[in-house]
Specification:
2 copies of one chain form a homodimer.
Chain A: H1 10-17, H2 21-28, H3 36-49, H4 55-63, E1 67-72, H5 76-81, H6 83-98, E2 102-107, H7 111-123, E3 129-132, H8 142-147, E4 152-155, E5 166-168, H9 171-185, E6 190-194, H10 200-215, E7 223-225, H11 230-242, E8 249-252, H12 255-267, E9 277-282, H13 286-289, E10 295-298, H14 301-316, E11 324-325, E12 330-332
Parallel strand pairs in A: 1-2, 1-3, 3-4, 4-5, 5-11, 6-7, 6-8, 8-9, 9-10
Antiparallel strand pairs in A: 10-12
Helix pairs in contact in A: 1-2, 1-3, 2-3, 6-14, 9-10, 11-12
GO molecular function (chains A, B): DNA binding
Protein name (chains A, B): LacI family DNA-binding transcriptional regulator
Domain HTH lacI-type (chains A, B): 8-62
Chain lengths: 342, 342
């Protein structure tokens, strides 16, 4: 087994072409910022050295590593309660098992910690590649992980994921559908309980929410940022329902916040859906168990995880990789939504 | 780094002592079947060669592997739906993260497949040790994994887990409490919807169920074996409620079967708890969301996972290890249990 230090890296290619590592990255990601001539010189150097963004990965994966990495930056307790990740991981595992491959799973406290972890996993040949999730605006993982040539699939909209091949759900389209549905029922004051500021898909959903409200001529309803926990959903719902101009409908960014919100509304004596409509995201079995059952933007999270793993194998096995969305979440109307009180 | 093949194995110790590998295993596990003289000879050979059941493990874990293994023999879809495993894994991860250690996770189709996988993980130094779950009666993993000296913690009653240090819940005591509670409410015909035949903790619960019924002078209620899925729980409930001598109370071995059972009872027009009482196991948030809410045998699954990981680190870091039960699941009465119809 050749030692990791003997691998050709992006640094070698940059030196050979007389450019910065950033320029090599731009060229290989087909981004503007390097001239045609420089691009050609970079490609020639890479060919000469036998380097491609994933080449060191590929030779490695064939040799030894039969695991792929997944680091999740969420509190452990939340991970155990939110159905999304277990369904997502079960989908990944269903594909990994076919390939005799395991998942190296780790909870981290920050994206910076994840960078160090992925670099070590890769250097020590513990992984053939990684699945990167929860992209932030200007995500700090992109540049250092592309630099080491980590083969990876990104879970997130291509506007967030740098040059990594990506798989995503069209959150903007789904939010617009949810808002239009509530508007058709007659709601004018709609609130959004979203994820944390800076988390890419939260930003996309929040922007789409505001845009959909504008297009319908509705005032921007209140938007609350949360950390996705049930407690956060309860707190947000309580403050929304105590406000003077309380909303008649609330759209939540996951299912456990919607479930907790339903509990709060009931406890405060608001009838759901007669006085306030609630709409959840993700639609795990939780949404079908509550009373009333929860209307949700539903998607096949298990299938999403499986698709992500398949694209990672496309990367590892040098098949042509195209970033692609999975099916857009679709509205499943249940008993928690109705016209607003007249 | 010394090559794995240079390690002293149980085979070397057996050869040096002039006995079989099985005899070495018996001696180190303090089991009957080897004479005092033979036992002494085995221990002397092991000391001479510097071998102990975990010695090769320990030297290794200090060198390289910063992951621990977990193989789960369940269908992927089920894993995504059953809250138990995600809460259990989140507890494991909470301790692993403190130690800068990752979890190598894999779904397998059989225990035989797991043996091969654990052997390979260990041989290729991908893991420092493993967490072994879902022990079966006469579990086929024990002997081959002890033979290679895999440092591991077993999740299961010591009667099932061979010589591995183990962490378990006292399922027998919890089942007895559940049955006595239903009997105090006045139930005489109690059914048990359990796990698959051969799975150790299912056998323990089933035996405890029959024993508790006998002690209370009740006829053995019907016992149904399942694979733990919601569909299994629905099917079992349907057939129990269609029977001529239908039970007035049903005890389920997990929460998703109880949730599905509640759906079936409602659909068949049986009022819960007025006509039939339902009692769940594990008590995830699912049990608090149903209508009526589900009475359950509740335990801290996240804390259980954390405790398992801590014992594994005791093994890896050569601290004294004692097998120990975690807190016994305790009854949380909610709205799905009541006296039987008079």
């Amino acid at each position: 087994m050749s030692s990791p230090s003997a691998r050709v890296t992006i640094k070698d290619v940059a030196a050979a072409a007389g450019v910065s590592k950033g320029a090599v990255s731009l060229a290989f990601n087909h981004k503007p910022g390097v001239s045609e001539a420089t691009r050609e010189r970079i490609f020639a150097a890479a060919r000469r050295l036998g380097w491609s963004p994933n080449s060191s990965a590929r030779s490695l994966s064939r040799q030894s590593a039969d695991a792929v990495g997944l680091a999740i930056c969420r509190p452990a307790r939340l991970l155990g309660l939110e159905p999304f990740y277990m369904e997502f991981i079960s989908g990944i595992e269903s594909v990994l098992a076919e390939r005799d491959c395991s998942l190296l799973l780790r909870l981290v406290d920050s994206l910076e910690e994840e960078v160090g972890l992925q670099q070590r996993w890769w250097r020590e040949q513990q992984i053939a590649g990684s699945i990167l999730v929860d992209f932030h605006d200007e995500d700090p993982r992109i540049s250092p992980l592309q630099e080491i040539g980590l083969p990876a699939v990104a879970v997130g909209h291509p506007s967030l994921t740098g040059g990594f091949p990506s798989v995503w759900t069209d959150d903007a389209a789904a939010v617009a559908e949810a808002v239009r549905y509530l508007a058709v029922l007659g709601h004018r004051r709609i609130a959004h309980v979203g994820g944390p500021r800076g988390l890419g898909h939260s930003t996309i959903r929040t922007t789409a929410f505001e845009q959909a409200m504008s297009e319908l001529g509705l005032e921007h309803g209140p938007h609350v940022e949360t950390g996705f926990s049930g407690e956060d959903g309860a707190r947000a719902t309580r403050s929304l329902l105590l406000a003077g101009d309380r909303p008649t409908a609330i759209l939540y960014d996951n299912d456990i916040m919607a479930v907790a919100g339903l509990g709060v509304a009931t406890e405060m004596g608001f009838s759901v859906p007669d006085e306030v409509s609630l709409l959840a995201w993700d639609d795990s079995q939780l949404c079908r168990l509550t009373h009333p059952t929860l209307t949700a933007m539903s998607h096949d999270v298990h299938g999403f995880g499986a698709q992500v793993a398949r694209v990672l194998f496309d990367v590892l096995e040098e098949r042509e990789v195209t970033s692609r969305p999975v099916a857009t979440p679709s509205l499943v109307p249940r008993a928690s939504t109705a016209p607003p009180p007249s």
